[in-house]
Amino acid sequence: MDERRGQPLARDAMAYVLAGGRGSRLKELTDTRAKPAVYFGGKSRIIDFALSNALNSGIRRIGVATQYKAHSLIRHLQRGWNFLRPERNESFDILPASQRISEFQWYEGTADAVYQNIDIIEDIAPEYMVILAGDHIYKMDYEIMLRQHVDSGADVTVACMEVPRMEAVAFGVMHVDANDRIVDFVEKPADPPAIPGQPDVALASLGIYVFHTRTLIEELRRDAADPNSSRDFGKDIIPHLVKGAKAVAHRFSASCVRSPEEPAAYWRDVGTVDAYWEANIDLTDVVPQLDLYDREWPLWTYAELTPPAKFVHDEEGRRGQAVSSLISGDCIISGASIHRSLVSTGTRARSFSSLDEAVVLPYCKIGRGARLSRVVIDRGVVIPDGLVVGEDADLDARRFRRTDKGVCLITQPMIDALG
Fold first, then answer.
1. Residue boundaries of the structural domains of the chain
2. Percent of the chain with pLDDT over 70
C-alpha cells in the first residue's frame, strides 16, 4: 500500500498495451488480424491476458495502441472492454496511429507508439506507467512489480524471466549484479550472461516495463530527437537507461499469479504456428500448466451470448463425443468424435468426422466423414466432406501450411484451392 494515500500503487498507474504487431510468424492466422487479436483458448483473444492482468492488478486506466490490420482487434476491445467508466476515474482508450506528430507518420516502433500519445497520457496524468506487450499468454500481478519499482528507486523496472542460459539466445537478456540492478542489456546474444551465483540461468526480458510517468516522457522526448534511434523500447530506450540511469530487473516468479492447480510460473510467446497450437492443446491436459478456471484471477473477454454446446446421436460409430477436450458454447457435435482438441464458439462437426489434437477457431464447419489431426483451422473455414489431414505429410504440405513439427494450418482460401 502507498503510505501517503493508503491505497495500492496500481490506482495511480496507467497500463499502456502495445498491440500493433504484425505477428508474421503466425503466417495466415494474421493475414486479416493483428497478433493480439488472434483467438486463444476457445473464447478469448491473446490481448485479453495483458488486459485482464491490468484489471485484476487494480489498474483502472488503460490505453491500447493499435496499428496493423486493427479492425477485429478494435471491434473486440469495443465489445468486451467498454465497461470502464470515466465517472469512476477509469478510462479505456484505443489509440490507433493518428498522425498527431506528422500527417504521414505511422508508429515507427514501440517507443514511438507511446510518444505519439504523450498528450493523452499527460491529460490522464498517472503517476506510473506500465508498458505491456499485447501478445503474450501469462498471469501477473503488476502491483507487485510497481511496489518493487518504487521501493528500489529505479528509473525503469524491467520484468524478466529466468530461463536456461543457452535458451536465452532468442531473447533480450539482462545482465544484472547481485542486487538485480541491470548493468548491461544484450539483444539475442550468442553467449548470454548468467545470473550471479546461477551460472546456468539467464534473465530474459518479457517486454514489460514500469516507469514513473515523468521519467518516461522525458526519455521518449529525448529519443524522438535522436535521428539515429529506431524508436524501440528494447533497442533504444532500455539500453540508454541501463547506461545512464538506474534500471532494475523484476523477476516474473515474484509476481506470477498461480492457482493451486498450476505447478510453475507460466509465460508463453505463441508467436509461431507450432507454439500457438501447443499452448492451446496444453489446455486439454487433466491438470494444465495454465489454469483458465481460476476465479481469483479471471480472464476477462468479450463473452458472446451463446446457447450451450450440444452432443447428439448415440449410435455405434456415430456418437457425438469429446474426450480430453474444451468445447465452447454454440457448438454442435453431431455424431462426431473429438479427442484432445480445443473447439471454439459456434463450430459444427458432422457425423462420422473426427478431430484429434485440433485447434478449431470460431464458426467452422467440419464436414461429414472428415478426419483431421494436428491441425489449426482458421475462423469460419468449411471443411469438405471426407477431407483427411494429418495422415500423409507430403500431401498435407502441398495443400496446406505444414510446420516442421507436422502441424497443418488450414484457411478457407486453401480449401477453395482444392477445387
1. 9-271, 310-417
2. 97
Beta-bridge mates of residue 137: 268
Q: Output the known binding site for alpha-D-glucose 1-phosphate.
A: 107, 172, 187-188, 205
C-alpha grid cell, residue 143: 502491483
Question: Per-residue pLDDT tens for 268-286?
Answer: 999 999 999 999 999 999 9
pLDDT for residue 103 is more than 60: no
Distance CA 207, CA 327 (A): 32
Model confidence, pTM: 0.95
- 72 close to 89: Cβ distance less than 8 angstroms: no
Q: Tens of pLDDT along 112-153?
A: 999 999 999 999 999 999 999 999 999 999 999 999 999 999
pLDDT digits (tens, 9 = 90+) for 283-310: 999 999 999 999 999 999 998 999 999 9
The answer as to CATH 3.30.1490.20 being correct for domain 310-417 is no
Q: The domain 9-271 is classified under which CATH number: 3.90.550.10, 3.40.50.300, 3.10.310.10, 3.90.320.10? A: 3.90.550.10
Bind-site residues: 107, 172, 187-188, 205
Which residue, chain included where needed, has cell 478494435? 74
**How far from chain centre, in Å, is Cα 57?**
17
